[in-house]
């Protein structure tokens, strides 16, 4: 064929195919660089992924409350501040870098200063680490507003990731993609939480076929409530047990009126609906189908009031709405864990993305 000896073709094919095959396999135990760990959504998302173990090589978290929680639940001893120059100098290589970088400066509820606030540039340290360590996979998460009011920062992050070169080929080292996913449609959890996810996967001389997870059905909010707290009598009982504050009381009253009118029009008992009301919102922020977005402020203020039990959502309930395990040791205050949960990953969404990343990194589609 074309005058080329078969043996030459075989040798050439082997020399191309061999390194590729060697590179494709992901290790059985994937080492993880956990940036901006918070309450370890990264760990709890990956712990049940079938066929793989994930071992965190280092934890980057500076808040003492989060460190205390991580110490009690995962026995983590050493933590790093991402700004500490010795951290970046000494951080070991890892296969997988994951981080929900601080979002207060990008969120709609925050000061919206973006990268003019020092917290807005912390992601740069993670990107420097990626450029040096060249992990097989990178997953970043942030608020949806990063795509709207702070699009230039999103573009910068994508440009930096796309600009990282493979040291052997000098070609772009990473396949890069981003998408907004909602925990309600993509995590199986009735929580209206839209987040931008950025995925980068080492190409290693191959075309990467990464497929974002598709929508899945979602359970009902009532199914995530503590059953022993649900009082299925009538909302009249709840009207005698109101939260403090005028706005909060008005919101509960308005919510009950709305639920009653829906129940009447649908010919159902009012307790068929067990909605959760955002107490501090100026407009009624409630849905019969899902929890409004749990932000740090709402979590800290315990601002979600369940009409099913006439009280704020419990810590276990908030954990369920973020798909965290509920058997965690809660060694911080209710306000502190609420705030941390408001900043955390929805574990079921991240788990589904990581599963797809591993498949793509290994060349499985
Ligand atoms: C958006 S939260 C991430 C939450 C996390 N994804 C989870 O599932 O819980 C950002 C975290 O970055 C941490 N952080 C902020 N500045 C930091 C710094 N200089 N070094 C390390 N961590 C920092 C914050 O304390 C916070 O826990």
Keywords:
alpha/beta; six-stranded mixed β-sheet; Rossmann fold; 365 residues; binds S-adenosylmethionine
CATH architecture descriptor text of the largest domain:
3-Layer(aba) Sandwich
Number of helices: 14
The total tally of domains equals: 2
- Which structural class matches the secondary elements? alpha/beta
Ligands (ions, cofactors included): S-adenosylmethionine
Side-by-side strand order of the widest sheet:
2-1-3-4-6-5
**Secondary-structure element string:** HEHEHHEHEHHEHEHHEEHEEHHH
- CATH superfamily membership of the largest domain, which one? Vaccinia Virus protein VP39
Distance between the terminal alpha carbons, to the nearest Å?
33 Å
Largest sheet: 6 strands, mixed
Give the DSSP E fraction (strand runs of 2 or more residues): 15-25%
Number of strands: 10
- Rg, rounded, reads 24 Å
> What best-fitting shape do the alpha-carbon axes yield?
elongated
**Mean pLDDT, nearest integer?**
88
Q: Classify the helix fraction into a percent range.
A: 25-40%
Q: Could you name the ranges where pLDDT drops below 50 across 5 or more consecutive residues?
A: 1-22
Query: Under CATH, the topology of the largest domain is which?
Result: Rossmann fold
Structural commentary:
- There is one protein chain.
- This protein is an alpha/beta fold and about 375 residues long.
- It has 2 domains: about 5-215 and about 345-360, Rossmann fold, CATH 3.40.50; about 225-315, no CATH class.
- Helices cover about 40% and strands about 15% of the residues.
- It is built from 14 helices and 10 strands.
- The protein has a 6-stranded mixed beta sheet with strand order 2-1-3-4-6-5, sandwiched between helices. Strands 8-7-9-10 form a 4-stranded antiparallel beta sheet, with helices on one face.
- The longest helix is centred in the last third of the chain and has 21 residues, at about 245-265.
- The relative contact order is 0.13.
- The model is unreliable at about 1-20 (pLDDT under 50).
- Bound molecules: S-adenosylmethionine (SAM).
- S-adenosylmethionine binds near residues 63, 66, 83, 100 and 122.
- The site of S-adenosylmethionine has 19 residues, from loops.
């Amino acid at each position: 064929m074309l005058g080329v000896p078969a043996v030459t073709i075989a040798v050439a094919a082997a020399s191309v195919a061999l390194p590729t095959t060697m590179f494709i396999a992901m290790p059985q135990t994937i080492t993880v660089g956990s940036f901006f760990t918070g309450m370890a959504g990264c760990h709890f998302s990956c712990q049940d992924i079938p066929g793989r173990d994930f071992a965190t090589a280092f934890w980057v978290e500076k808040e003492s409350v989060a460190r205390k929680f991580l110490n009690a639940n995962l026995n983590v001893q050493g933590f790093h501040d991402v700004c500490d120059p010795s951290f970046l100098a000494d951080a070991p290589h890892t296969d997988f870098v994951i981080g929900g970088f601080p979002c207060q400066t990008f969120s709609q509820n925050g000061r919206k200063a973006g990268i003019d606030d020092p917290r807005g540039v912390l992601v740069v340290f993670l990107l420097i680490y990626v450029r040096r360590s060249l992990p097989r996979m990178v997953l970043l998460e942030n608020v949806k507003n990063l795509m709207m009011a702070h699009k230039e920062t999103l573009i910068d992050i994508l440009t930096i990731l796309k600009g990282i070169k493979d040291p052997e080929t000098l070609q772009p080292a990473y396949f890069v993609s981003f998408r907004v996913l909602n925990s309600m449609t993509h995590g199986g959890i009735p929580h209206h939480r839209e987040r931008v996810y950025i995925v980068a996967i080492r190409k290693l001389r191959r075309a990467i076929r990464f497929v974002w997870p598709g929508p899945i059905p979602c359970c009902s909010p009532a199914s995530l409530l503590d059953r022993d707290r649900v009082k299925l009598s009538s909302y009249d009982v709840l009207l005698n047990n109101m939260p403090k504050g005028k706005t909060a009381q008005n919101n509960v009253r308005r919510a009950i009126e709305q639920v009653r009118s829906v129940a009447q029009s649908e010919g159902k008992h009012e307790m068929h609906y067990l909605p959760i009301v955002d107490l501090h919102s100026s407009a009624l922020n409630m849905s019969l189908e899902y929890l409004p977005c749990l932000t740090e402020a709402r979590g800290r203020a315990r601002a979600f009031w369940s009409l099913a039990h006439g009280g704020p959502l419990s810590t276990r309930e908030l954990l369920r709405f973020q798909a965290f395990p509920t058997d965690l040791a809660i060694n911080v205050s209710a306000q502190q864990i609420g705030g941390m949960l408001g900043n955390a990953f929805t574990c079921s969404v991240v788990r589904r993305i990581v599963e797809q990343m591993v498949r793509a990194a290994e060349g499985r589609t």
